[in-house]
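Justification of resources, computational component.

The compute hours requested in this renewal are based largely on the per-chain cost of generating structure records like the one below. Each record pairs the submitted sequence with a full structure-token output. That output is archived, and it is also reused by downstream analysis tasks.
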Amino acid sequence: MARTARPGDAPAGVPAWQRYLAAQVPGAVLVGIGLWLFWGETGLPAWMGVAFFAFWIGKDLLLYPLMRRAYESSETRMQRLVGKRGVVLDALAPDGQVEVEGERWRARAIAGEEAIAAGTAVVVRAVDRFTLLVACVR
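The structure output for this chain reads:
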């Protein structure tokens, strides 16, 4: 069953760096146009304008590693959880809540698993839409 797009979801198949770049280009263009139009009014040397624009672009490049996760699709973020360990918060019979990497997620015990009690260590085996499929750690 295909997942339907939700508001705020990133377009499927578009890498995070391309979405980040698309979000930064309009600001850089506006700064460049502003510098070009109004630099003569400042009375400052031209090299300062070039340095300011280079700083503006450099800022975007330096911030990308910190911002990358915000531009990834939800599915990409969830797929990273496969293989991670967590703890059951609400008993899984078969659905409930787990905590994985400090975040609370909806979860379901994989087929063949008995009900899993709260406090039990689990490992994420797969993702089904926004539900983690988990199994007991053995």
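Strands lie at 85-90, 95-100, 103-109, 121-128, 131-136. The helical segments are 16-42, 46-71, 74-79.
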